[in-house]
Automatic annotation (TrEMBL):
Pfam families: AAA_33 (PF13671). Keywords: Kinase, Transferase. InterPro entries: P-loop_NTPase (IPR027417). This is Putative kinase. It comes from Spelaeicoccus albus. The keyword Heme does not apply.
Amino acid sequence: MTGRLVVLSGLPGVGKTTIAEIVASRTGSVHLSIDEVEESILACGLPSGWKVGVAAYEATCAMAEQNLRLGHDVVVDAVNDSEEARQTWRTAASRTGSHIDFVYLVVSDVQDHERRLGGRNRGLAHVGEPSWSSVQRRRDDYAVWSHDVLNFDTAAQTADEIADTLTARLSTR
């Protein structure tokens, strides 16, 4: 039996990592974060840019596939703002025969979103924290979802409430 893949998506600062950590902790799933992988790649001295971002997605995808084949559920957190990024996970699920759930997180309260982003420090020396203006630009370029996705507003529900829903979905396989 292969594992199940849950892909948490959304702009920086919406709560992807927090929710992924809760779900992984509750279910014993593997948690993979694009930012952590990108941080490791940049720590090796490679220059920041699009290629490093793609490499982080591909490396994370390889780790996800390996764990899915072992029967582990995998929770990925990544912005996933393009159809190409999302295809990475659909391909991983297809190659491993795994079920995939895409989850899209937003913060409907713009002031709350800006506050969350401004107050966070994840300790990533190389990736750093995005500016509010860069997040706004990403919002403008964020690709519309072309397939089924679970939507949650982290201004309307707590991380624990969203994790409860996702944990229940993982337990029904």
